[in-house]
User: Which sequence fits this backbone?
């Protein structure tokens, strides 16, 4: 099986991580792959090349599309893929009509079908994204769910001392872009109501200065750590007490799977993605969006209520093993690529 991947996402981000880890898992499963992507993430490009993949970089400039279209056409011509997967809408807009029959549009959000006009096949990350794809007129036999996965087996915890955090303090980890949609202001407000709780926020984004100023106003500078973008989230998860996921808007949210895979209790707001998979009290605590008091209470419960964290970890781990482990991802991906290669 030979698969071309095209990704024009941001320098860093959740969907970009999904793409990276998906391609690496398929490489480990023996799939021959090539990649066209932007040149702005050396870690991602090096990771692909370390697996022996051919990587071409392109600007994905819609105002001057010809170099990017040329790079994709060249790889299709020379690599001769059985399938080409376009990760997110911007990449999909560069898919050539001549290869439509073997092209796949990947939806990590509620993208319009028009962005994948030259993709006959479509993959949704969640049940609701699959509904969204089909509601736009895609035939059932040309669309599927392929869930993401996470795998942190054997990853040692980060040394808390390097993050100026006491060894015995409860730590909530937030893996999120610093954006209004992620609800991190709610997390800071709730943290002010939970004495002794430390918070690690791993991510970058436009609200960095605003969130840091809010943190200072709340008197939390001694308990909140803004870590920037991290490529070692497995180590952060292993050293944390639980995961806080207060997003206001989230089509899915890989943080849910990350928490389950790392055997960490999860506290999540009821954005559409988490609400579809988190069962309150079973594999996480599900709270209303924008509810500071509910978030504070849920975090206190995980810290203080005997046996609760262990029950949530067990439930999360069961959900992970049933649907979101590496073996399930590779199995479902290969089955879908075979359908694409054979034309249905």
Assistant:
């Amino acid at each position: 099986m030979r698969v071309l991947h095209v990704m024009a996402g941001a320098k860093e981000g959740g969907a970009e991580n999904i793409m990276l880890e998906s391609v690496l898992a398929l490489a480990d499963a023996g799939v021959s792959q090539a990649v066209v992507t932007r040149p702005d993430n050396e870690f991602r490009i090096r990771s692909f090349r370390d697996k022996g993949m051919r990587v071409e970089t392109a600007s994905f400039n819609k105002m001057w599309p010809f170099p990017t279209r040329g790079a994709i056409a060249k790889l299709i011509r020379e690599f001769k893929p059985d399938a080409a997967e376009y990760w997110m809408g911007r990449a999909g807009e560069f898919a050539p009509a001549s290869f439509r029959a073997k092209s796949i549009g990947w939806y990590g959000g509620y993208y319009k079908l028009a962005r994948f006009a030259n993709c006959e096949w479509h993959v949704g990350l969640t049940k609701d994204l699959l509904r969204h794809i089909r509601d736009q007129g895609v035939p059932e036999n040309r669309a599927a769910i392929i869930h993401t996965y996470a795998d942190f087996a054997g990853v040692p915890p980060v040394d808390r001392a390097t993050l100026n955090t006491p060894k015995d303090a409860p730590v909530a980890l937030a893996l999120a872009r610093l954006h209004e949609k992620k609800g991190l202001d709610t997390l800071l407000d709730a943290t002010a109501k939970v004495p002794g709780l430390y918070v690690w926020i791993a991510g970058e984004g436009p609200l960095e200065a605003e969130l840091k100023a809010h943190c200072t106003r709340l008197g939390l500078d001694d308990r909140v750590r803004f870590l920037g973008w991290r490529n070692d989230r497995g180590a952060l998860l292993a050293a944390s007490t639980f995961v806080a996921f207060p997003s206001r808007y989230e089509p899915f949210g890989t943080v849910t799977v990350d928490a389950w895979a790392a055997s960490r209790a999860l506290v999540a707001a009821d954005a559409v993605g988490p609400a579809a998979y988190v069962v309150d009290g079973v594999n996480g605590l599900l709270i209303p969006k924008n509810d500071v008091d509910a978030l504070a209470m849920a975090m206190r419960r995980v810290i203080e209520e005997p046996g609760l964290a262990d029950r949530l970890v067990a439930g999360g781990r069961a959900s992970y093993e049933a649907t979101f482990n590496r073996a399930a991802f590779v199995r479902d991906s290969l089955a879908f690529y075979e359908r694409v290669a054979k034309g249905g």
The CA atoms of residues 244 and 267 lie 5 Å apart. The chain has two domains: 2-149+325-342, 160-323. The longest strand covers residues 2-7.
